Amino acid sequence: MNEQESLRIISEMISTARGNIRKGAGKGFLLWGYLIFAASAAHFVMLNYTTIDERKSSILWLGATAIGVIINVIMGIMDHRKPGVVTYIGSISLRIWVGFLVCLIAIMILLRGEAGWYTYPAITFIYTYALYISTALYKIRWMYISVSICVVCLLLYKFIPFSYYPLLMAMVMLVGNILPGHYLNYKGKERSNV
């Protein structure tokens, strides 16, 4: 083992011990959080304050998804060029959210047409599960409050009309992506200065 390999192993161990929170760790959370928050708000306005046919909302969601995927790919390419340590926690977290994406695509395909109003609760359900696992993985205790709020939003779908579903999704994105994303970026910046 040479000097470089020793330093790499030590760096991996330190990063793992710190919970794998590195500078910019929350940018994926923030990208999708703000994007879905904005799309949810737009969908709410479309449903409640315009005469646009609700079936046209698929264009809104398709556009938001396409924008998110393009930006995510660009961010991934830029991150791949930067030297860094991929820890076990980072690797597992990536797999959790890829699994969420696979389930999301399946839901979007399966719950079309008349069953479409189930889409919001189904997405919130698998999202809350993925957020719970990520919270346990990163060991950020206050995020269990975010998970709890997501569960409350999930239960509220049962009691409110469909036209208010986008507001619940916006709340889920605020507490599940936006707040944790800013926290992860703050902690990553703080730890990179150490």
Count of beta strands: 0
The proportion of residues in beta strands is under 5%
Shape descriptor: elongated
Q: Structural class of the secondary elements?
A: mainly alpha
Using only C-alpha atoms, the radius of gyration works out to 19 Å
Order of helices and strands: HHHHHHH
Major β-sheet profile: none
Which percent bin holds the helix content? over 70%
Average pLDDT, all residues? 83
Q: Ranges with pLDDT <50 over ≥5 residues?
A: none
Distance between the termini: 27 Å
Count of DSSP-assigned helices: 7
What labels describe this entry?
194 residues; elongated
Structure, explained:
With 194 residues, the chain is mainly α. It has a domain at 85-184. Helices cover 76% and strands 0% of the residues. It contains seven helices and no strands. It has helices spanning 3-17, 27-49, 57-81, 88-110, 119-138, 143-156, 165-192. Helix 2 (27-49) packs antiparallel against helix 3 (57-81) and helix 5 (119-138) packs parallel to helix 7 (165-192). The protein is elongated, with a radius of gyration of 19 Å. The relative contact order is 0.17.
